[in-house]
């Protein structure tokens, strides 16, 4: 029995609210248990210097936590004057994960800025950010398709992420903060709708893990990400039908 | 007739949700029209160096906007590596305003960190922050009173803020972003429940203003802040009764 | 009786030395009591990005204090690696105030950089900076008029600033540092030659103030700024006659 | 056939020179093909604030590249004034990996600072750094054991790292820079002498990968890390015998 | 004939005003031709960490230029967020030079902060700073002697600095900015009252120089520094008599 | 007798390895006693803004030490977020020294970036850096001559540097760290092959020095730099023959 009464292979309650922020091109509010994140998408009509002239677009992410997202107040990175290592690692992960399912050529020379701001943290903020940012990104791109700016949705597959870990000796799905703090092995897995891996990041700082343990964790991650993708499909509505290369025209057949 | 159909002396719709963030000692979500701010209070059991040994407490504020609170994305101050002048000016204003109604001796050697994070901006973010932060602060202090940590609520009066300005030639109450952008005169007023001024910050960069115009604006500000204080009273419930020096014991008489 | 023997409505001794710095396009040394500031004007033939192509000019200000302008040494902001909140607030105020009396269209696509460096501080450094910077700015612009670079002086009105405050229960004009430290209410007022307000910044952190107190303070501020403008008129000599839209040609009539 | 003529499961030439830097407590020069890294160990008799009073030690790492380690000059992070995201991610990885095999209680309240400075880069700099830093760390700790400062070597197991990836459709071991640039899947694996995983970091930004591909890569990684550990054993000489909990006394039996 | 009509071995006009800044413990305004510098001394009753417990004091210097000290405006180092290499080099030089004539043991565990702020620059700002800072330092220390805080003046000798250089083929004394810009060889020399060298910093970036040229320059530097020391002696009045170890008591014999 | 047994006029053992770093256009590893430096040259086909359009090139240098180059670990400047004063002073010195022997017109609009990274420090790191960087620079330029990119080697003379100082009362050549720490006078001298001075930087912070002592030190410096230049000539081989304006064609006569 886990600290919050869940079974080892049970996710926390998930909620997603589309178009949560009026000022953004795409947005979603996602909660996974007590972890709550605001994800927004910004579309910019240019790309970073290293992509110019390639005809391809780019997806980048920024991640932050409000100071009181945590049990004790965290000093703002703007006050410290620099972005910390953990933050950079997470935003590089989110950007990389999202790019893996975007057809950058179809996107054209545009940059998608994905902002993930954690307003309350209870473990799994990076995976909730990826799962939510995917929805906010599709939201923004779908509006461009409807407006005729894009001929088709440049999204190749669904994408969701979850954390898994070994608590005591038990592999568990979707760790809350208390579990995460005491886990010996901690792994974040990003998977596509077709069941492929985009990111596998497992660390056994407290205790190196065996190949068998690795397999158990990967199985749990698959279970969790597939459930998250089902939620995404629901909240995205008709936009969901265009993922994977279906053109707008075809969906009306 | 104003851009959003309001009368010149009419405020936008106000909403406040108490205890919006579970991880913080006090918190409120405040919306004033489309301006939405999350305010949290953190209680720290020590004071900054310049206050040590005085027996008095301190109240300080930090203010920030999510990148997509605005119509076009604003670069994070953490990415720029420094806090901008506008942000510093606003957080100094919020801190000063809140301190004016706190009895720092009764607070004791503690620091209240008030965080105001704008998640959507449509004008008046600093005044909404002050109005909301006051509620979050009372929320946190009232819990300390109830827990016996503080003998009485160290809050001397209510406090609320609004913006006023001259749009065209018409003095108006509670400017939205579109009005604010075109106003010739822009003024932020912070007032107490007893109708005294805590801050009067008027600027006529576009057009210097006459003493008569100043008076019209101050009258509107009084109207607006008194309405906001009525909302605060409502959302604070029984904590409201302790503001102004009433001890907990007395309220049960 | 005040700490330095002045009446409540009496300013400190004021001195202004025009063209104090040979290397600058315009400059003045101003002392108000023991507060001493060097103000210089720099003319740059381009504007910041947000003004490009508008045909209009810009005025911006920077403010600093030498480390030993104060009774105890203040660490340089260059050593700290960042400009503090108080400094930013002051330089934003100076820039805004000066812009209110400059005809930015007549200035053309040029930037005026106004530097105010306090070499000795005894209260009222920001208001002395505004009063001095106005003179240095007119000095630089008048030279451009004389050189034929500008057809007329793009300055609409005189501009001066003073501080007022409530010391004990007495509203007083032009606070020195000792008074400022103990004042309950502190207000900086920037006014034009025609008696309009450009900035009204009053703060009652120590004690909120009533509408009546506000009026007394504003009356004192008017008295002080009009005296300062008389000094400015004197030191500026023939340039003074061109303020408010009089063309050079007319002055020779 | 690979770009440099190796078989898919063949590592590049490895060289390690112990005690390469006289001024450091422990040091090694490691080359893996044309990737060359100087690793040093510093022993400090205190721990970071979050570890104080726990009786346990800490291991932390810093990683950098000389400007001309790369084919085109890279700007120094000291000149940019901040440490980049990639650098932070790598030094967090190195530190975490090393801590997994150190008995922090036996180490006592000391910090090991592991510096990994890449003097020439040709792919796999982070994995070469981990492999080399392990040797430099054991070097420093072994000297402490010999000097009687530590009763036994607080190192639980060997540790080495390698990169693997899918180049074209071929899983390959130990990618050089040219291969790494064109790989669809890129994975860094850190393993112990007993064949357990410490870190598995696989990313399929270019192309998500299947469970089967994951297994092939993990097999190659095991092959490579075991060869590296054989080299470590050789260069460490008698210190190698103390890894895994053997006391100094026992080795002389 | 030089650009400003001086002979090759002639210094510019020198002026020194003692106690120029009321708020500082010691201060001087020095002008050497059109180069004008405000030098202040601050006495702090503690020393930097590396000197603690040694019983000795420390002397450190900071140097800056106002933005319009120069013909074109120089961006503030506080705005750039870092102190430049030239500034650091100069302040290290000033501190080192002053320390060479201070008896740090007699000073006791105190730090002298010497601030040199150039308000107008026309070449030789670093040497004018050293010459002026010496006077401001003696000014502050002499007050401590008179107040009984120090038993005797902890200053071993006079100290002054000048620049020399080869303009065309002519060695010249005390270069102004125009000469400095075109000089092939540029040398700053700091000397004591007894004619010893404290700093010799010659650079022939434009044209390496011969031993004979070096000697001519050193001769000119001696001439200039001895004249500057005569000025210092005059402005320091009775404090001058205590330099070199004479106790206060003795001077009244 | 000196601390390491050398005579007062004896240099430490010198070693230079050309082309030490494959990735750089020119490189050398230099050791002078236990001081070891990696010097690389980068050729960039543009110049800094202040040189654009002049037809001339530029030479700039960066200097750093690995954290464990020193007996106790030095914090990385990238971690501190700024480059220290000592580092800036040294890299300005190296750049200036190298430029003095380069014909910047013949170089054309190119920048040479010279990186000097100290991997082990035992005194004299800046002079070893200059001596080594000269070789790495010639190495890179000679390759450009051989490739036909440059018509002739734009190097006017040899260049080497050494430190001298007064240890006790004895002037000594090439101080090691232990001597340097206790020297009363410390001087760095950069000289050309033809025996001219490029930089003379002597400081007598501990004890001002006489003209006679200055001459003794300069004589020792000449002895040392001429020996270093003999080494440079040897390691540079045929490139050495082109220094001083000899064209490639001529060398085959």
Describe the 3D structure:
Six copies of one chain form a homohexamer. The first copy, chain A, has 253 residues and is an alpha+beta fold. Helices cover 32% and strands 27% of the residues of chain A. Chain A is built from seven helices and nine strands, in the order E-E-E-E-H-H-H-E-H-E-E-H-E-E-H-H. Chain A has helices at residues 77-80, 85-99, 104-107, 125-146, 177-182, 211-236, 248-251; strands at residues 14-18, 26-32, 35-44, 58-65, 111-120, 159-167, 170-173, 185-192, 197-203. In chain A, the strands form two sheets. Chain A has a five-stranded mixed β-sheet. In chain A, strands 7-6-8-9 form a four-stranded antiparallel β-sheet. In chain A, a hairpin with a 2-residue loop joins strand 2 (26-32) and strand 3 (35-44). In chain A, helix 2 (85-99) crosses helix 4. The first copy, chain A, is globular, with a radius of gyration of 18 Å. The N and C termini of chain A lie far apart (49 Å). Mean pLDDT of chain A is 95; it is low at 247-253. Chains in contact: A-B, A-D, B-C, C-E, D-F, E-F. The interface between A and D is large, with 37 and 37 residues. Strand 9 (197-203) of chain B pairs antiparallel with strand 9 of chain C.
């Amino acid at each position: 029995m886990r600290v919050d009464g869940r079974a080892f292979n049970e996710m926390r309650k998930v909620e997603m609210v589309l178009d949560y922020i009026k000022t953004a091109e795409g947005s979603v509010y996602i909660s996974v248990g007590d972890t709550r994140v605001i994800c927004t998408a910004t579309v910019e009509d240019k790309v970073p210097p290293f992509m110019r002239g390639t005809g391809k677009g780019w997806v980048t992410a920024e991640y932050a936590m409000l100071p009181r997202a945590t049990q004790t107040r965290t000093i703002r990175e703007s006050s410290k004057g620099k972005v910390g290592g953990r933050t950079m690692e997470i935003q590089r992960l989110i950007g990389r994960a999202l790019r893996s399912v975007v057809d950058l050529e179809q996107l054209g020379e545009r940059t998608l800025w994905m902002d993930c701001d954690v307003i309350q943290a209870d473990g799994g903020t990076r995976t909730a950010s990826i799962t939510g940012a995917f929805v906010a990104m599709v939201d923004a791109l779908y509006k461009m398709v409807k407006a005729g700016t894009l001929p088709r949705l440049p999204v190749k597959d669904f994408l969701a992420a979850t954390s898994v870990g070994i608590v005591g000796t038990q592999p568990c799905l979707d760790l809350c903060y208390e579990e995460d703090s005491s886990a010996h092995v901690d792994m974040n897995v990003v998977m596509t709708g077709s069941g492929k891996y985009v990111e596998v990041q497992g660390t056994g700082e407290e205790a190196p893990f065996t190949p068998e343990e690795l397999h158990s964790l990967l199985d749990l991650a698959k279970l969790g990400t597939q459930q998250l993708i089902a939620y995404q499909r629901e909240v995205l509505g008709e936009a969901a039908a265009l993922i994977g290369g279906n053109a707008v025209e075809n969906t009306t057949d």
